[in-house]
Design brief:
It is a single chain. This protein is mainly beta. Helices cover about 10% and strands about 35% of the residues. It contains 2 helices and 12 strands. It has a 5-stranded mixed β-sheet with strand order 4-8-7-6-5, with no helix packed on it. A hairpin with a 6-residue loop joins strand 2 (about 50-55) and strand 3. The protein is globular. It starts with 14 loop residues before the first helix and ends in a 19-residue tail after the last strand.
């Protein structure tokens, strides 16, 4: 199984850079989402909002708070769309909790559906669909994860359970973004 490319210390992404990359891809590459007028969603580890952004201009169209029943959300890290169902998944920072929470997310209302504590401080998530159509959710731990900084995991989308795939910490000091090519996985 090919592993995603994890960016090293020279490429420490920031929120603005990530947004600019997404906008550039939407502006200069043929995109089914752009052609169909599908929304682009963004989140930030610095607040608790989910935003709908115009993929052509980068203008925020809507912004709603992310809520999780009975919990206090302090920020959001990873956001990924399931390639088959279209369901959005997110990684949330929860007040008083060690490890980040995997949730399903309604982008219109901001309501999160609890899936489970991952046990790690994930910085990003992405779905991969292989050539046989199997779908896997991957997560990359952030440098703030005490036990597995910068390591690559698979995440169970039904429970949030994390399984170590690759120990990136031995070769990286800052690979906190993950993505897969939607054509070849």
């Amino acid at each position: 199984m090919p592993f995603p490319r994890v960016l090293g210390p020279r490429f420490r992404p920031v929120l603005v850079l990530n947004l600019l990359i997404v906008l550039a891809l939407n502006l200069f590459a043929p995109s089914a989402a752009r052609a169909q007028g599908l929304p682009l969603y963004t989140i930030s580890s610095f607040d608790t909002q989910i935003r709908t952004v115009d993929p052509l201009t980068g203008v925020t169209l809507t912004s709603v708070p992310i809520t999780l029943a009975g919990r206090t959300v302090n920020g959001a890290n990873g956001l990924a769309k399931h390639p088959v169902t279209g369901q959005l998944f997110a990684i949330l920072q929860i007040s008083g909790q060690s490890g980040r929470e995997l949730v399903g997310l309604d982008p219109t209302a901001g309501v999160a559906t609890d899936i489970g504590n991952t046990g790690h401080n994930f910085a990003g998530i992405a779905f991969r669909r292989d050539s046989q159509g199997a779908v896997e959710l991957f997560g990359i731990a952030g440098t703030g994860d005490a036990s597995n900084p910068d390591d690559l995991f698979t995440l169970n989308p039904a429970t949030g359970a994390a399984t170590l795939v690759d120990d990136r910490a031995q070769i990286s000091t800052g690979g906190e973004t993950i993505a897969f090519d939607p054509i070849d996985g």
